[in-house]
Write a structure and sequence with these properties.
single chain; 393 residues; alpha/beta; Beta-Lactamase; TIM Barrel; six-stranded antiparallel β-sheet; 15 strands; 42% helix; binds ligand C2E; binds calcium ion
Amino acid sequence: MEEGTGLGDDWVHWLLDAARARLGMDVAWVSLFTEGDQRITSAVGDLASMNVVEGMSAPLEGSYCVRVLSGQLPPVVTGATRDPRTRDLEVTADLNIGSYVGAPVRDADHRPVGMLCCVSRGPGTHLDAESARTVELLADLISDHLRSGSAAAARDLAARRERVRSFLVRGAVVTHLQPVVEMATGAVVGHEALSRFPDWKGPGPAGLFSEAAAVGLGVELEELAARAALEVARTLPADLTLAVNLSPEALTCDSVVQLLLEHCDCDLAVEITEHSRIDDYAAVLSATGRLRGSGIGVSVDDAGAGYASLRHILRLRPDVIKLDTGLVMGLHDDPARQAMTSAMVAFAGETGARLVAEGVEEEAERDALLARGVRYGQGYLFGRPRPAYDLVA
Ligand code: C2E
Ligand code: CA
Ligand code: CA
């Protein structure tokens, strides 16, 4: 059963409220079991007085739940602070438990995967077998609800995977190329390969890459895109560099590195396109080391877009740093962007990296970049991404 399906779930809250009201108790919650712990995914009532917070985790060991499930404790405890089976448990004091009624939440195979608990600070002399049956009934309803919720989530995930997979099986990617130019002369020095998925209805190619990553097919889709781009590389003039986008996950995948190495006779670079942190720099550095050893350059994309990209630059020591569109946009009017650009120029100079400004749309931006020592640029001013088959023809 999917963990967390209960959190913030109105129907489960409603059932918990029904349980609490029916039994006249302070608090009711559903917890779902994980490895050794239980997590309270939904809770209602006077939570603060019992030190309960929705989303909190607590160890299963020492809990009422495991004792009820193993039969050491009955499902109804009317005087927890006096009952020898509960009075010395830490949880009794920690949560101010005076009385308790619990029933398991079960998965489709009837295995307990969580617990519905009703708890009060005071004793519960009114609680009886009927109370236990009420909680059991509501726990069964919650079990059904969570099962149908997780079944629906599983179906949804399968449908999303299938949609991404359809791009993979059809190889439905078209490589576009956008020129990178020496801004002073306008001479084209290379291209960036940008993927297009003609029948993808979502937001931009980046949308499909993140959807693929979300359903566990990210690297497969990147490999497909890289394969298509590398086929284009074969058709380009030998003195023009082709930059291929890859996430750190794809870059640390052996088949992707192999694929690149098979094309190392072309003039290639990889652009590391990652906006979040890299968890395993050692693996990325080992991949970039192998690529560099075969003459494939390494670029860090979107520099200046956030802290992550600066960290990547320091750790990966790229051959090329691509200044993010956000830094270039309106550069000529903005002293802060100008200062940042100058700092990047100084840094690139000291580390021997080449700077490429992205998203250059206006002549004023180009001139401001040139004035600060940025030689290379890419953007609509110089050329939009166009289908490779157009360009090569
Ligand atoms: P990116 O690598 O930062 O690519 C640059 C984006 O800026 C491209 O968007 C490009 O079309 C757009 N662009 C170029 N010039 C200008 C300009 O002058 N103004 C503005 N406003 N935008 C400009 P696109 O093609 O939609 O790609 C978006 C992102 O999707 C890429 O960002 C990259 O992260 C990812 N992506 C695209 N193709 C691939 C691929 O084959 N593999 C991987 N891993 N990622 C890819
Ligand atoms: Ca890029
Ligand atoms: Ca970029």
